[in-house]
Amino acid sequence: MPQNSDPYYDERIIDVKYRHTSRLLALNNVHTVAIGHKVANGYVLPIPAIVVFTTHKRPLYEFPVNQRIPTVIEGFPTDVVELPNFVPHQLKDGIPNRERYRPVPGGAEIYMPNSPFTGGFCTLGMFVHSTRPQDNPEDIYLLSNAHCFYRNDQAIFQPESHESDNRIAYSSRIINSSRVDAGIAQMLDNDDAQPYEIIGIGTPLSPYTLTLANLSQTVVKSGRTTGVTIGRIAYLHANADDKRDQIIIADIDTAFSDHGDSGSIVLMESGEQRHHVVGLLWGGAEIYTILSPIEMVVEELEISLITA
């Protein structure tokens, strides 16, 4: 197992990673740069490395010198992972979490008719309040992804339905920035929200900011398609496609997420921080899931999480 992080080492490798990210992303087939534990011959080494994700991994000698990923950057080891680009989760049929709930807990299926990207299906992550001065602080909003709500005032149903009785909210704030893929929708009736429950998990607790010391620890989520699953924190400070400072989770035994799980809240699975919220899930590739850190979601959406 990896050893505990050295704060001085962590601070320096994060700085080096940021200074070299643009150069690494400019290399052919590279789409993500992050920090995680280096894996060699199936063994996880005990210190973090700068990890480069590429769509095509080949021997070093096959690349021109100016296209090679260095084995060491300013004294820090690198690792290369072959993986397709991360993409937002889209529609896929599923069974868990698709029942009709009143009041509605986190983890439940939500449906947006005529959504051109997701096929209409996403996950209600949890509930929040708006912190904008002009908004009523008592109003309750559901939290999910920007790519789930293709426009403001989008009608949101729970579960899949076109019946007005199943309409629970309208999207009211959408932010798809360099840091987050997030959106909120105001509940039509506060009494239809069950803010202190996530299906199969329990009560969400206050936000928790991950550090490199959390690498390899486990997280949990409840989503529309795969239900309750556990994954491993694999990479932090990930610059992937048009997003920066993202969190990457690796599967354990079964898939951590799949299409339709977009919008799920990810929480620490065990230990002192058990059930504290760490991120908002928005996509994945093969055995990995990607999420926006919850502190960035809170800041950019101007919200406060409703937690115990």
Give a brief rundown of this model.
By secondary structure, the protein is mainly beta.
List keywords for this structure.
308 residues, mainly beta, six-stranded antiparallel barrel, six-stranded antiparallel beta sheet, elongated
Rounded mean pLDDT score: 92
Radius of gyration: 20 Å
Q: Report, as a whole number of angstroms, the end-to-end distance.
A: 33 Å
Count helical runs. Answer: 2
> What portion of residues is helical?
under 10%
Write out the strand line-up for the largest beta sheet, numbering strands in chain order: 16-17-18-21-20-19
Uncertain runs: none
Q: Could you give the count of β-strands?
A: 22
The description of the largest β-sheet is: 6 strands, antiparallel, barrel
Secondary structure: elements and pairs:
Elements: H1 7-25, E1 30-40, E2 43-54, E3 72-73, E4 76-82, E5 87-88, E6 104-106, E7 109-111, E8 121-123, E9 126-130, E10 141-144, E11 155-157, E12 167-176, E13 181-187, E14 193-198, E15 205-207, E16 218-223, E17 227-240, E18 243-251, E19 265-268, E20 276-285, E21 288-293, H2 294-301, E22 303-305
Parallel strand pairs: 2-4, 6-14, 15-20
Antiparallel strand pairs: 1-2, 1-17, 3-4, 5-20, 7-8, 9-10, 9-22, 10-13, 11-12, 12-13, 16-17, 16-19, 17-18, 18-21, 19-20, 20-21
Walk me through what this model shows:
- The protein has helices at 7-25, 294-301, and strands spanning 30-40, 43-54, 72-73, 76-82, 87-88, 104-106, 109-111, 121-123, 126-130, 141-144, 155-157, 167-176, 181-187, 193-198, 205-207, 218-223, 227-240, 243-251, 265-268, 276-285, 288-293, 303-305.
- The two termini are 33 Å apart.
- It is built from two helices and 22 strands.
- Helices cover 9% and strands 43% of the residues.
- The protein is mainly β and 308 residues long.
- The protein is elongated and about 65 Å long.
- Strands 16-17-18-21-20-19 form a six-stranded antiparallel β-barrel. The protein has a six-stranded antiparallel β-sheet with strand order 11-12-13-10-9-22, covered by helices on one side. It has a two-stranded parallel sheet with strand order 6-14.
